[in-house]
Amino acid sequence: MVPNRVARTTKIGTSSSFNSEVVPSSVARTTKVGTSSSQEAVGGGEADGAALVGALAHALRRHGVPVAVRSTVACAEAVAALGLASRDDLYWAGRATLVHRPEDIGAWDAAFAAVLDDTVTWAAPSPASSTALLVDEDDAGEAPSSEAGSEPEGDVTVLRHSAQEDLRHADLAACSAEERAELHRAITRLRVGVVTRRSRRRRPRRSGRELDLRATVTAALATGGEPLQLHHQGPSARPRRLVLLVDISGSMEPYARALVRFAHAAVASRGAGRVEAFTLGTRLTRITRSLSTRDPDLALDRAAAEVADWSGGTRLGDALGQFADRWGVRGLARGAVVVVLSDGWDRGDPEAVAEAMGRLHRVAHHIVWVNPLKAAPGYQPLARGMAAALPYVDTFVPGHSLAALEDLAATVATLGDAPSTRSPPRRRAA
């Protein structure tokens, strides 16, 4: 249901408050045809509608009102649907499609009069109206219940404002506890698209260059052995595994819970088995089973109980090496899209990070590194772990905000079909 305050705004635009004082006299004139009253027809009835719309848009631009091409096309479609039967229909069709701000109504009235009457006659200004800004703080997107005296009275233009829209680009480390909780709920609703790859299995196709001999011969049996219809086939698509490695060390504390919630959103939207999630700290912990439940809060509690080194130290090279030894090279990362979510700070040997990333680089289809610090102005990957891993990274993106995680979800979904044309980077001689 549309909230009352939004519906009120719509009524303002179409109510009788726009009377004959607003509409130019040249538009408001009426004449009687037969026994019924009708609005004055636009001259001749044979005017070119497209040319007339173009003239109206040009005249409106001369009055300082920007008119987009899509607005002109919408006006032409409206005029084509209504016809040029009356000046009133033409006036409101153009005003509804070419005018987008209340302060431009006077310019539209003058442009309309200039085109149709060849004289510029400024109409009476639109009645002054107040503007009320209503902030919708309900995270579910529903308008809060109206209380007595809370609704603006009179001709008031109501503008709705979503607090969540402002938080989309806010850094998680700079948010308050309430804002962070709202962003966590928004991250939970994210959906990560299915990453696919071409399979060796074949599936029927309506056309193509590859002939399905079995289906063609089977169909020919019904026509006396004559292959009257050729059947085709082509490669099918299979889901490509997605592996998420989330850094939950002390330096990632402002972002760790949000990134684990992102991992839960990926597991929940695609199902366990297609998505694997691990945490990186002083050790490696697999949390895929803990994130398999649909309840995000319960999933986070289970993951936190299973991870023993939450907000502890960072031995990124050892954790990545353990993943490569036990899970990655043996098949979990082979042909998969591997996403590492970490700031790159490491207390261990950076050579261990480079060695583990090199091994993953050779077996994974694509490696994405998500660093929340990358969004900072003037950021340089100077941390030893980050500098050691970067030569083996295919895509390097920020992950500090809700908008960045939305972009990550969209980016990951496009990496499955793209062929990997990279070549292994050369290791520097010791």
Q: What do you see in this structure?
A:
There is one protein chain. The chain is of the alpha/beta class and 430 residues long. The protein has 15 helices and 12 strands. The protein has helices at residues 4-14, 25-28, 49-62, 69-82, 87-98, 105-117, 163-167, 177-188, 213-220, 253-270, 296-306, 316-332, 350-363, 384-389, 402-412, and strands spanning 30-33, 36-39, 130-136, 156-162, 196-205, 232-239, 242-247, 275-280, 284-286, 337-341, 366-371, 395-398. A 6-stranded mixed β-sheet has the order 9-8-7-10-11-12. The chain has a two-stranded antiparallel sheet with strand order 1-2. A hairpin with a 3-residue loop joins strand 8 and strand 9 (284-286). It is flat. The model is unreliable at 1-41, 43-47, 119-126, 138-149 and 426-430 (pLDDT under 50).
Topology of this protein?
Elements: H1 4-14, H2 25-28, E1 30-33, E2 36-39, H3 49-62, H4 69-82, H5 87-98, H6 105-117, E3 130-136, E4 156-162, H7 163-167, H8 177-188, E5 196-205, H9 213-220, E6 232-239, E7 242-247, H10 253-270, E8 275-280, E9 284-286, H11 296-306, H12 316-332, E10 337-341, H13 350-363, E11 366-371, H14 384-389, E12 395-398, H15 402-412
Helix pairs in contact: 3-4, 3-6, 4-5, 8-10, 12-13
